[in-house]
Amino acid sequence: MAGLNNSMNLFFISSVLTAASSFGFGVLVLFRSTNKLLAKRWFLFVSSVALYGVFAALIAVEKNPHRAMLLWWLDYILGVIWISPLFYHFVNHFLGRRAKTSIYFHYAFAFLCVCVTPTHSYFSYTKWMFNSFYYAQGGWFYFIYSGWWWGLVLYTHFLLAQAYKSVTQAKKIKFATSFWRWPLVFPEELFATCQTSE
To answer: What is the rounded distance in angstroms from the CA atom of residue 176 to the CA atom of residue 116?
Structure first.
C-alpha cells in the first residue's frame, strides 16, 4: 500500500506481539493437544485475536484516513467481533457446559455486528490520534456492540472463576493460559470504548 509509513509506534509493536504470540500459542496447542475438538476451538479463538493483531499493526502505520477506515472494518469483521463469542464457546466446551442456545445467540449477534460494521452506525469516522495513526470513532451501534462484547467477556471469565475452585490442578494450569490472553486485548478494546464517548 502506498499509504503505509514504515515508522513504528507502540500500537504497531503491541499489535505485532499480539498477533505473533496468539498465532504461535494457538498452533502449539492445536498440534500438541490430545483433545482435538477443544484444541480447534482454542485455535479459532486465538486466531481471531491474532487477526486483530495483524490488522491493528497495519492500522498503526496507515497514513491515509480512508484506507485506515477500511482496515478498521476488516479488523473488526475478521477479528475483534469474533473474539468474545469464540472465547465463550471455547470456555463452555472446556467446562463441559451445555449452552447451545446461548452460544448460537452470541454467534448470531456477532454476525449482526459484522453486517453493521461497514456503516456509519458502527464507525462514523477516523480521527488522527497521538500524532501516530487514525483511530476509528464509534457510531451509536458501536456502544451496543461494546456492551455486548464486554458483558460476554466478563461473564465468560466469571464462569471460569466459578469453576476454578472445583477443578483438578491440570485444569487450573489450563485456566491460567486462558487468562493471560486478555491483558493483550482488553486495553485496546477499553480504549476504543472510551474514545468513542468523547
So the answer is: 34
Domain ranges of the chain: 10-195
Torsion of CA 150, 139, 192, 93, to 10 degrees: 30
Q: How many CB atoms sit inside 10 A of residue 125's CB?
A: 13
- Distance, CA of 92 to CA of 34 (rounded, Å): 18
Chain segment 100-140, per-residue pLDDT in tens: 999 999 999 999 999 999 998 998 888 888 777 888 888 89
| Contact by Cβ (8 Å): 55, 71 | yes
From CA 18, how far away is CA 49, in angstroms rounded?
7
List the one residue out of 51, 115, 34, 49 whose CA is nearest residue 83: 49
The pLDDT tens digits for 150-163 are: 999 999 988 888 87
